[in-house]
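Table S4 entry, Ribosomal processing cysteine protease Prp.
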Amino acid sequence: MIQVIIEKDPNGLIRAFQMEGHADYAEHGKDLVCAGASAVSFGAVNAVLSLTETEPLIHQGDDGGYLRVEFPDEANSSTQLIMESMIVSLQTIEQEYGQYIKITFKQ
């Protein structure tokens, strides 16, 4: 199962997110849950890097089953909007494939 943890500060701003694990929906290379979650998360990170001034800290695992992205305190509203969009997309995947992906929020 893919575990997604969204970390927010007391003001509700997204400070980090972490994705860990494998969906195991299908065999490697044909797992649409993993492909969808990966595309959404990496697309969002790439959008932050390309469209904002925010420089997040990015940590990746060697086997592709781990991604952690931390945002600096000065992350702007555009960064927050991109991250909120990512969450909506991941929640859409979770609604259909909840036995393979779980999103939790942490403050």
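The CA atoms of residues 40 and 47 lie 10 Å apart.
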